Structure to design on (437 residues):
């Protein structure tokens, strides 16, 4: 890692004080106000995953570097530039996972998941790490949700199911205007023929290609199709397209995927130059785009060769993954904010040590009744505690002073209208319940 940036010093001022430390570049805190949105995404993932019979899997954040170097491909940006490498004291080279798919393939073989009914359908959600230049929608720590189907024949129906899982999740979250961009990059055989034509086209235009693409065409030719440079875009405009080079089997496979997508009414757009940034794909590749956003909110494809590349065996597989931060960005832009789960509606105010002690067990009585009660035990004055109750937007404040503890009673204060009533402590839970109905 070239830059040294474990904790960036910043001159940023927070409430008049200089903030010495910031979170690491490209990595973000998820604050309480955003938690309901994240929770909504997690819940929807679980819901869709379980409905389509995907089983939950979690894999470690740290993996051996070599599985990604092999699996994703040495010439890919992720491997070449974006891995967070960790050297252990014992000299092992590990990485913070840059994606899940390769790790899941490892787990499939490590735990003999071929013993499960095939195909095994797995879903996951968690943080991934890529050392990229942060910008809108691009972070160094981000989160992915994914659906993987491993161990089936290369049947196009599973390609559709991998898309379906992610697409139905997008629908459940009510993201509008999402389309699937889809293409087929064929198998090793037909891709080789296409790459020759592509190389010839770019070599013919060598004078006009950018510096990076000159290297790409030599090392990893398909990558030239991802180049955003204006001159390279012009060259791409009349570059050959891979669909013209697919062999009969790959063509039939792609046609079937599209037919199945029609069957479940998923809108798609054939994007002849979509190739994706990871080497393990074959045949179907796809990405999800939301209207008004120029980055993909998700992507995936078939990866029948990954297991062989990792020297694990032969296994057909296909999957999809969504970027959670990007999904949440689109969700926020759609103007459907998820109401933050309100803080407790009940706030306990204590006055004096006896009341503080009794307050502790009183909260336990509410817990048994399944009701949340907030407090500010560290504060002593009535005024400052009521101020916190106000910030919390509590409906009721329960005021317990020395006198009330002695008399076994408590005051219920309606925070909106300001009325107060004294009730026996033994009846407080039911009195509160009655008022919150
Ligand atoms: P990917 O396209 O590299 O595919 O990542 C999937 C999604 O993760 C992207 O579409 C995007 O939403 C999000 N993402 C990627 N990089 C960043 C970043 N730096 N910041 C924020 N979000 C990001 C994969 O990772 C494959 N494993 C997908 C797959 C699953 N293929 C088969 N199965």
């Amino acid at each position: 890692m070239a830059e040294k940036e474990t904790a960036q010093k910043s001159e940023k001022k927070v409430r008049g004080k200089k903030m010495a430390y910031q979170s690491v570049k490209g990595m973000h805190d998820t604050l309480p106000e955003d938690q309901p949105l994240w929770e909504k995404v997690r819940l929807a993932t679980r819901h869709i995953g379980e409905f389509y019979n995907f089983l939950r899997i979690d894999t470690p954040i740290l993996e051996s570097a070599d599985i990604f170097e092999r699996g994703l491909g040495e010439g890919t940006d992720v491997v070449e530039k974006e891995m967070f490498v960790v050297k252990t004291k014992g000299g092992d080279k590990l990485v913070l996972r840059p994606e899940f798919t390769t790790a899941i393939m490892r787990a499939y073989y490590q735990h003999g998941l071929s013993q499960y009914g095939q195909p095994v359908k797995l879903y996951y959600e968690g943080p991934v790490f890529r050392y990229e230049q942060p910008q809108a929608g691009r972070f160094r720590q981000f989160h992915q949700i994914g659906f993987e189907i491993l161990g089936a024949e290369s049947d196009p129906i599973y390609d559709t199911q991998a898309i379906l899982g992610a697409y139905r999740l997008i629908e459940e979250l009510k993201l509008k205007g999402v389309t699937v961009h889809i293409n087929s990059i064929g198998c090793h055989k037909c891709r080789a023929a296409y790459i020759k034509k592509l190389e010839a086209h770019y070599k013919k235009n060598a004078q006009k290609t950018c510096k990076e693409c000159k290297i790409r065409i030599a090392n990893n030719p398909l990558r030239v199709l991802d180049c955003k440079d204006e001159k390279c875009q012009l060259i791409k405009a009349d570059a050959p397209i891979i669909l013209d080079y697919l062999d009969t089997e790959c063509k039939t496979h792609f046609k079937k995927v599209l037919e199945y997508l029609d069957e479940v009414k998923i809108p798609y757009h054939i994007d002849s130059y979509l190739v994706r940034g990871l080497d393990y794909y074959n045949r179907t590749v796809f990405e999800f785009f939301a209207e008004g956003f120029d980055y993909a909110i998700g992507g995936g494809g078939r990866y029948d060769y990954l297991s062989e590349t990792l020297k694990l065996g032969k296994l057909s597989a296909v999957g999809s993954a969504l970027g959670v931060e990007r999904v949440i960005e689109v969700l926020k832009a759609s103007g459907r904010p998820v109401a933050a789960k309100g803080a407790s509606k009940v706030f306990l105010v204590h006055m004096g040590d006896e009341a503080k002690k009794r307050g502790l067990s009183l909260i336990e009585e509410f817990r048994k009744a399944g009701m949340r009660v907030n407090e500010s035990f560290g504060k002593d004055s009535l005024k400052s505690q009521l101020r916190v109750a106000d910030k919390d937007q509590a409906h009721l404040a329960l005021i317990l002073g020395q006198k009330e503890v002695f008399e076994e009673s408590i005051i219920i204060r309606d925070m909106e209208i300001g009325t107060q009533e004294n009730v026996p402590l033994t009846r407080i839970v039911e009195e509160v319940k009655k008022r919150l109905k």
User: Anything to note?
Assistant: Residues 99-101, 130, 132, 137-139, 142, 144, 146, 148, 296-301, 303, 319-321, 323, 325-326 surround histidyl-adenosine monophosphate (CB under 6 Å). The first strand starts at residue 13 and ends at 14. The domain at 32-187+247-333 is CATH 3.30.930.10 (BirA Bifunctional Protein; domain 2). Confidence is low (pLDDT under 50) at residues 1-11.
